[in-house]
Design a protein that fits this description.
Elements lengths: L21 H26 L1
Length: 48
């Protein structure tokens, strides 16, 4: 996952409390992406 996840479009959330909501999935993907980015930055810093 090299690209930052794209947030859902305005019309993708029905606001009826779905589980999981498209926003739940987005935030899970975003946190995973952020962790991956931090890991890559740490690995790159240790290589220097």
């Amino acid at each position: 996952m090299n690209e930052r996840p794209t947030p859902p479009a305005d019309n993708e959330c029905c606001e009826s409390g779905c589980s999981p909501c498209v926003w739940d999935t987005y935030y899970e993907d975003l946190h995973a992406w952020q962790a991956q980015q931090a890991s890559q930055a740490s690995a790159q810093a240790s290589d220097d």
